[in-house]
Batch of 2 targets.
Target 1
Amino acid sequence: MEKITFVKFRKLTIRYISLITVFFVFIMGSSFKGASMEFSSVNNGVETDAVVIKSHTLEHHLAEKERYFSSFQMGYSVVDANLKMEAGINDISIIPPVDTDGDGVTDEKEIQDGTDKNDPCDLIVAHQNCSPSTEWKNADCDGDGVTNEKELDDDTDPFDSCDLIVAHQNCSPSTEWKNADCDGDGVTNEKELDDDTDSFDSCDLIVAHQNCSPSSEWKNADCDGDGVTNEKELDDDTDPFDSCDLIVAHQNCSPSTEWKNADCDGDGVTNEKELDDDTDPFDSCDLIVAHQNCSPSTEWKNADCDGDGVTNGDEITDGTDPLDPCDYNPDSITLPQSGDYLTADCDGDGVTNEDETTDGTDPLDGCDYVAEHQTQPTSTDWNAVDCDGDGVTNEDETTDGTDPQDPCDFNPDSITLPQSGDYLTADCDGDGVTNEDETTDGTDPLDGCDYMAEHQTQPTSTDWNAVDCDGDGVTNEDETTDGTDPQDPCDYNPDSITLPQSGDYLTADCDGDGVTNEDETTDGTDPLD
C-alpha cells in the first residue's frame, strides 16, 4: 500500500492517507469518476476513526506518462466520522514524492537502492518511478554526447559512454569520451569522428591514426579474415585490413570463408585450394593449372608465367601449358621470350634456348645446335635419337667421341638404329654416289673407290679428287678431266701421271701380254706394249 502526503483538507490537517482504489487508478494513468475513498487520519500520533467520503463528482485526467498529480477538486459528503463537516467541494493538494536530484527515482527509492539522492547521475534507470526533471533529460551522464532523454528514447544506456548511436549525438561529448576508445581499435573516439570511421566498429579505422594502445580483443582479432591476427600483421608490417597482404607462414588463426574462397594472386585457384596444393596463394605463377576453380584475373591472362612469349590466356586457349616454357604454339608468340624460357633447353640438346637464339639455331630442334655451346646436360630423349642418321644414337656417339651431327663420323660397330635422314643423302666417301645409292648398289659408302660410276650424282670430294682409285698414277680428278676411267687402271693418260703407280695397276696386265704391269716395270718393258 503506497502512502502519499498531502497538506490540506479544509480545516482538517491530515498527514498521511492510505489509498486503496484511487492509487491504482493513478498509476494506470486513467480517468476516473464517481469513485470513493477510504482513509484513516493520524493527528498528533493518534489514529482517528475511519472516514468514508462518498464523492459526488471526482474527475481527473492524468497527462501522458505522468504518474502523480498535484491537485484536483472533488465533491464529497460526510457519511460517518467524528468530524462535523458540510458536504461540498474542496481543493485537495497532493505533494508528489520527493526526487531531490531530479533523476526520476524518488529519494525513498534511491535510499533503498543505495544510490545518491543528490547525484542525478547516480541511479538505477530501471527504478525510475517518477518523471525526471528537464535538467536531467538534457544532461549527459555518461558524457557520450547524447542526452539522457535521447538515450532512453534510443534504448541505449545513459550511463555507458560506449553505448550510444553516434548519429544521435546532440551535445558535446566529454573530454573523457573523446580520449576513450570504445571499440578498442587503438584510435580514440574523437579521432575516429575526425576520420569519419566508426568508433564502435573495431575493424573500421585508419591504422596510421592509431594513437592509443589497442585492446587485447583487437590484437587477437583478424579484421581482414586472412588468418593472421591484427597484432601479428602490425608486427609483420602487413595491412590488417587487406586480406591479400599477409605472410602465409604467419597465419595463426583460422581464415574466414571469404578469404578461403578468394583468389589473392588472380591465378584462378582459390586461396584455400592453393594451401591444400602447397602452392603460394600470392604467386600468380605458382599453381596447379588443373586445379583452377575460379576465373583468373585479366592480369593473369595477360601475363606470361613461363616466359615463352605466349600469354597465359592464349596458352589456355591453345591447350598448351602456361607453366611449361617448352610447351607453346610458336604462332601465338606476342611477347618477348624471357625468364624461365631463356634458361631452359627445350629441345634437350644441351644448349639453352637463349644461346640457341643467339646462335640462330632452333631451340625446338634438338639436332640444330652449335656443339661448342652445349652447357647443359642433354635430355634422355636427345640421347636416344640419332641426329645425323648414321644409325648410332647421339649418346653412343658422345661416348665414342664421334660427332652426333656428322653422318659420316661414326663407329660402324655402334650402329643400333636404321640409317636414315642426313646419312642417306650424304656421300661419306666423296665418290659422288650417295650413301643411300651405295647401299642399294651394294658398294661401300665409306670406300671412295667402291662405287658405280653411273650412280655418281653428287660432286666428288676434294679428298676423292686427289686420290688414285685404280693406282695408275693419275688422280681421280685428272682422270675425270682426261675422260679416262678412274676405276680402270689401264685407262689413263700417261702424260697425266703425277703419283706413283700402285694397287690395282700393279697387279693388272694392261697390254695383255701375260706379264703384270708391276713385273713389266721391274723388267723395264712397256706395260702398255
Target 2
Amino acid sequence: MSHLAPAPAPAPVPQQIFLRDCYMRIQTPDPSLPDGFNAAKMTTLVWNQTPEQVANTINNMHNAHGTNVQLWLKGDLVGMIYAGIYRRGSMPIDVTPQTGLDADNNVISIILPSGVAKLDQVSPDPSKVVGLNKQVQCVYGIHLKDLNRPLVPNDYLYIRMQYLKKFLVDFYKFSGGNTKTAPAPSWTYADGLGRVLVITLEKPPM
C-alpha cells in the first residue's frame, strides 16, 4: 500500500503594516560604542512622558544636560519631511526639516499599530516652549494608556535609514520628478519575522 506524503503546510501570510499608521524615532548610533546599532534602539518598553518633559526636550535639542526624553514622529509624509528624507521640489506641507536625521546609518525605531493602540500622544506644554522652538512641529512624546500593559517585542521593529531613503529614490524615479501629480506608490520592507512594512507618501488629511 502506498502512503501519500502529507500536504505541506501553507506558507503564513505576511502581516502588512503601513508606516503611516506607526510612530517612528530616528537615532544616530554612537560611534564610540562597539555595538552602536543596538545602543540606538529604544531604551524602554514603558513610556510615561509628560507635556513638560516634551517641551524641555524641544527647548534643548542638543541634550546639553543629558535629561532629554525620546521624541517621536508619525510615519507619514509630515514625518518624512521633518526627518529631511523628503526634499525634492516644493514642500507640500509647511514643515521645517531637522538636520542630521537622514544619515544612512541612523537607526529608525518603529512602533507598530499594535503598540500605537497602547499609547497616547503627548504634545509639549506650550507655556514651556520658548523662542524659535515654538516653530518646532511634528514631534511629541508618548504615554502608555495602561502602565500595566507595556510594549512587547511584537509591537515594534527597527530599520536603518538607508532602506527608507531607497524608497524615496525609487519614488522619484517612478514619478519622473513630478511628485505633485504622481500617484503615491508603495515600497515594502520585510523584517524576516513575517512582517512587511508598507511605506507610502500619501498626504495626510488636513
